[in-house]
Amino acid sequence: FVVKGDKLETPFYRVQFDKAGKIARLCDKEADRELVQKGRRLNDFYTAEDVPVDHDAWDIELYYRDKVVSEDRCVAQEVVADGPLLLTVRSRYHIGRHSMLVQDITFYAHSRRIDFATEVLWEETHTLLKVGFPVDVHADQWRNEIQFGHLTRPMHSNTSFDAAKFEVCAHKWVDVSEGEYGVALLNDCKYGHDCLDKMVSLTLLRSPWAPDEKADKGRHFFTYALLPHVGAFSAETVVREAYALNAPLFAAPLATARKDETAVRSLCVVSNPNVIVETVKKAEDDDAIVLRLYEAGRTRAKTEVVFGRPIAEAWECNALERVKGKLRVHGGNTLKIELRPFEIKTIKVRSGKA
Prior knowledge:
354 residues, mainly beta, nine-stranded antiparallel beta sheet, 49% strand
């Protein structure tokens, strides 16, 4: 990492911050392209008056866009971590009338992901806080994750139906792609999104008065991430990174390891990157293990599920864990499974002797 004033260079990007601490330039070195729309900024915080006609805590009205205020009161910005694996820039902002925001922007040496770990002391009323990413990517639709898959929505408001989608729900990620390049916006707990004039925005906080006048006030912690990717959208580049953000690895001592045990052993590994092991649990009726898998790329997928230890028996089940049929075990620890686009499969396995 190289830092020179308001500019920095990482293994993946050349970055420039403006006086408000926003990202004025983000050049992808591998693709040799600028990601920021001309005259605009990435990670652009803005607030707006938020007074719904009905259902104060549930609704957002389209006319909030008529009263948008850019939040540019950056009081400090400094590099707080600079090592071989990552670099972190910390920014502090005054937000709204009475609130403060502190954010750590982290660039990695071995990942294209850019993380925005955010802490907000929120003391507003009837105010909406959003962050926008006006990316220079040409697309007329964007992908929005739903459970066990994703759907596409228009990035324009040409019809009344399109205009009504000014705020939409997505789970861990949204993605805007143009053939062989795209940008995903990941999050770990914020699900309201919108896309206007190629600016993908994430709703961070609201401050309704009813039914609880203090509903959203207080201290909040959340992380979102920008993920530019070379190549078309795929489950391997976007979906798996979103899972990595939401369920990060953690280390724990293995007290029962034998001295002669040097191999790394996983519960199971899938050979197809489009297949996600979404759930692992103990069976409801016995001591078997239940896995729920799904195809995440909207393609047909054949995969091998290789277990880290021998398995004695395996069955395909429905969602209630009622057995539909027995599965053949190959080589003592491998199952061969085929899934249709977005198909969910539940399998039940009983381990054999290690």
